[in-house]
Amino acid sequence: MKKTLLTGTAMLCLAAPAMADELNIYAWSDSIAPELIEKFEAETGATVNTDGFNSNEDALTKLQAGASGYDIVTPSQHFVKIMIDEGLLEDIGAAELDAYAAVDDRWKGQWWDPENAYSIPMAYGTAGFAVNRDLYDGPVDSWAAYFEPTEALQGKIASLSYPDEVVGAAQLYLGVEFCTEDKAEMKKVYDLLMAQKPYVAAYSSDNIENRLGSGEVAAHFWWDGNTLRTRNGGANVEYAMPKEGLVGWLDSFVVPKGAGNVDLAKQFIEFMSTEENATIQYNYYAHSAPVKIDEAAAKYTPENAPELFPDVPVEFSRACSPAAQDLVTKVWTDLLQ
Amino acid sequence: MRALTSFRLWGLAPAWVLMGLTLIVPVAIVAGVSLADRGPYGGFDWALNFGSYREILFTLGWTDELEFAPKYLVIIARTLGYGLVTTAICMALALPVAYVIANARAGWKPFLVYLVTLPFWVSMIVRVYAWLIILGNEGLAEKAWKFLGGGDVDTFLFTNGAMLTGMVYSYIPLMVLPVYAAIEKLDPALLEASHDLYGNRWVTLRRVILPLTWPGLSAGAILVFVPAIGTVLEPMLLGGGRQMMMGTLIQTQFGGGRNWPFGAAIAMVLMAMVVVVLLLNARRAAAATEART
User: Fold this and answer.
1) Is A2-123+249-297 a CATH 3.30.830.10 domain?
2) B41 to chain A: which residues are within 8 Å by CB?
3) In A, which residues are within 8 Å of B137 by CB distance?
4) Homologous superfamily of B47-292
5) Do the interacting molecules here have an ipTM over 0.90?
6) Which of A85, A307, B83, B272 could anchor a disulfide with B228, C-beta 3.0 to 4.6 Å?
7) What pTM value is reported for the model?
């Protein structure tokens, strides 16, 4: 009996690699169309597991902790750069993939992956703020409405629980350069956020859709596509177009170093980047597609989705030096101490 | 004798290995990281650097001077304060609940105990989200408040009260169960004796029930206090995350702050506080045993 058990265990161990046709994806929460996951599973016979994250920092920390077990991660541009510099990503020869040919030229050879060796863009968009129009009918053409709220919004504002894009937006409003190492400049950012704090109801990156949609708060720091989806869901929300500009982001598929199934990961990236599937993904995710899509089948146009076609400047987040990052953290811990 | 010694050594070896791998090694790693040099983008390099501990008290100010900054001490004190308040509320609520269960009819007892443990079958996050709905706009709490004649409220969410409600709710079963066990053992004859000796209800509670159930209460207090000071979810989701607690501070340092050694140092401080509480309790328990014999 004991022997059978032992043999059984040994066989299980041996069998494990054989059923390794599993793809573990770590992506922004709800960012990949479930329909496509099912289709991919049906086409390849592989099992796909998806985990969600709500901030780039979470994704980076998990990869740095080692042996994350993920085959695909979808960080934003500045974190792609950090992950490459830190040696956390697998060189997948992205420029050789068919997916690369589908990528819009303006996203090729960018500073975060100049050789196009590690990443294939997946979606891009902006970070700004949205208001609930049932509760607030004032202007939203400037960050002033958000950072220096009038009485209508006081106590009805929510921010994110981490500094990354919030500090960037404050910098746009104040005309402070991204990633500055100048303490006096960052003190201005701190003073602005500190003056805003009494009017902020919550600093939370979770559950934004409910908080804003249900009217728990009247203005929330948020992303373009999420606002669009919530608006299409029936909530009376509007994405602001502040004249000072929006914070840009571009998420890419990357493969962590030591991933268990690099080939399947590449296969998935190719799969997601075909014109047909990219269109399905675009229609689901409601963020702009950096690869070629079928315009005729695309659900969102400048007419019905102004969120995705900003008419104000867009400034992309950068990978800050440690000194600059320390200032960002200092602003945040001093703010929430 | 020798057989016994060798059994103690080898028979308990699996327990020692398990303790070592799951308790001692991880703590040693955190201790090591707290002394390491920080990596530029998170991560760390092994070193012997006490800078992270110094940073808890002294930080570079906005004017580039090294100044004594109590901000982290404030966070630590706040965390301890909310931990204590949560524990006190749990105690006050758990005692009558446990008393009712202990005095219920025999057939009901297992069912009532089961009810107390029921929330543990559901994920913590889901339970906290449930409170978002209860306390949120037009939620149950607001309706009840208006029904009882309360005035207009914007929302109950994003307040310290909401956070404490969530914390008490999350941890109270850990208080009810040990207190129930203690009351269960309480001999009703002692209560009758107290009444026979003209002790009124208050005196009976203070001089008979409380001393005899104290072991259960103090065990519950530790079970509640320790997770309460490490809490992350309730302050973020219900409290609105406007003020950091130690849990959120540690999370920030490992995440956005990209300063693992400092996060580890704060974690060590948190752990040291837990150890102090446990040691104090152990000493008191030992003293109590001694006094009895």
Assistant:
1) no
2) 60, 82, 85-86, 319, 322, 325
3) 214-216
4) MetI-like (1.10.3720.10)
5) no
6) B83
7) 0.84
